[in-house]
Amino acid sequence: MKSNSFLFSLLFICLSLTNIALADTEYLIADDASMADLPFSQAVRVDNMLYLSGMLGTIPGSLELASGGIEGQTRQTMDNISVLLQKHGSSMYKIVKCLVMIDDMQEWPRMNAVYVTYFDGHKPARSAFGADGLALGAKLEIECMATID
Question: CA angle at residue 101 from 95 to 103, to 5 degrees?
Fold first, then answer.
């Protein structure tokens, strides 16, 4: 009986790996020249899921961070996420999971006060952790996963 269980488990793993290999995957590179040389895709679409790389509160078309402290950078980060989602056929409403990396956990309440305004009627799953030394000296970075129709 153990032999059959092992064989079924092995068959299940093989079929799962085959499905992953057959998944429709697209690596989405930024059109923005200021991001063209970065060593990652801005987003990756796998079937009906869109996986965004971590986003900072940079002003569109530049690597300059938005002013206004944690609130300004959170607002700009969320706006950047919204634009990227819309560009690739999704929206803020279709976000299912976010990861928030914040430089100073003491600023969590101010970041969260802005963050929650971007989700009307639903709350995506979320993880968070304090990070020391984010890119460009940013106060936070947020990555998200969303569905696509």
Answer: 150
CB atoms near residue 140 (< 10 Å): 25
- What's the pTM value of the predicted model, to 2 decimals? 0.80
Q: What is the pLDDT of residues 26-73, one digit of tens each?
A: 877 766 645 556 677 889 999 999 999 999 999 998 899 999 999 999
**What 8-state DSSP symbol labels residue 97?**
E
Helix axes of 69-87 and 108-115: crossing angle, nearest 10 degrees: 40
Query: Which sequence spans correspond to the domains of the chain?
Result: 24-147
Q: Find the angle CA(142)-CA(51)-CA(25) to the nearest 5 degrees.
A: 160
> From residue 145, how far is each of 19, 40, 45, 109 by CA, in Å?
20, 16, 10, 23
CA 108 – CA 120 distance, rounded (Å): 20
At residue 25, what is the residue type? T
Topology of domain 24-147, CATH: 60s Ribosomal Protein L30; Chain: A; (3.30.1330)
